[in-house]
């Protein structure tokens, strides 16, 4: 008998629970501790966050009050992203702010939870809260979903390598 | 004949135009260019922002995308504040984010406009937008209004000294 095939985790589910929020759900074929590790260790983040682009992690202080700043070097130029940690509860919950240098001062609050599904898989849920509906809709129409799915596919590979 | 007496500028007016905003209005007995200078020059800011407390200006890049960080050394301890400039239009408008180290990742967007009243006075209007009503109400009950009026009284003195 062969080992049971793992189903591909597939694309993230994107919904808009309120007029200022985006909710993202994605299942990963890895235990929660391993997903947490891949999302907080700079050497691992640099392997998936940039979707194949070089990612320079200028700052990453994974603790309440800590700052983070990533710079992605892609074919379309250099893009900086940064924010600050509001809450860090390993291995299950992070609340952090997010802004892109291209729209400085437009700040999203991302609440990320990792749920242990009990079968070796982990469900990631991220709720993003914007200051206005216009900012939320701008993010939705920015190609965010494509980029996110590319990042998460790269994260699948990182997680498989850790297994 | 004596020179006409200047009326004292008095306390700021604080209102809540929506359930996530605070609006502050305050008149200063100085021309707009001088108020702008006192609000953007670090040597002048350090004379009024801290209301008599030592203020260390760690970073102040008054331009779109620039960061700012001030650390106030008071009797009750050391308090850091920081944010980023979304828009800077001298001498009339600044949009910038604001957060206090004590509540990291809770980000307010402050839109400040300076109106030239044409009689040597300037009206400052600041609208602060919060992510939630709870955060807005937390700010209102924090003693913010007292601290702000102390800062603006100190700013009156700085402006008088520039005259």
Note down, in words, how this protein is organized.
The structure is a homodimer of 163-residue chains. Chain A is of the alpha+beta class. Chain A contains four helices and eight strands. Chain A has an eight-stranded antiparallel sheet. The longest helix of chain A has 19 residues, at 144-162. Mean pLDDT of chain A is 94; it is low at 1-8.
Q: Gyration radius of chain A, to the nearest Å? A: 16 Å
Q: What share of residues are in beta strands of chain A?
A: 35-45%
**How many distinct helices of chain A?**
4
Reading the helices and strands of chain A in chain order gives EEHHEEEEEEHH
- The CA-CA distance between the termini of chain A, in Å, is 21 Å
Multimeric organization: homodimer
Biggest protein-protein contact in the assembly: A-B, 20 and 20 residues
What profile does the largest beta sheet of chain A have?
8 strands, antiparallel
Structural category of chain A is: alpha+beta
The number of E-state strands of chain A comes to 8
- The main sheet of chain A orders its strands as 1-2-8-7-6-5-4-3
Identify the overall geometry of chain A.
globular
The stretches of 5 or more residues of chain A where confidence is low (pLDDT under 50) are 1-8
pLDDT averaged over residues of chain A: 94
Helix content of chain A: 25-40%
């Amino acid at each position: 008998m062969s080992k049971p095939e793992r189903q591909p985790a597939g694309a993230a589910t994107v919904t808009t629970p309120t007029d200022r929020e985006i909710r993202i759900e994605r299942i990963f074929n890895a235990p929660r501790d391993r997903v947490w590790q891949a999302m907080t260790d700079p050497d691992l983040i640099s392997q998936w966050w940039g979707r194949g682009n070089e990612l320079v992690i200028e700052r990453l202080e994974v603790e309440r009050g800590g700052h983070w700043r990533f710079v992605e070097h892609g074919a379309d130029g250099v893009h900086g992203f940064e924010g600050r940690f509001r809450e860090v509860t390993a291995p299950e919950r992070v609340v952090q702010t997010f802004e892109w240098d291209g729209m400085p001062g437009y700040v999203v609050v991302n609440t990320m939870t990792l749920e242990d599904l009990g079968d070796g898989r982990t469900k990631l849920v991220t709720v993003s809260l914007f200051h206005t509906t216009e900012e939320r809709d701008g993010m939705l129409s920015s190609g965010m979903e494509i980029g996110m799915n590319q990042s998460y596919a790269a994260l699948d590979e990182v997680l498989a390598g850790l297994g």
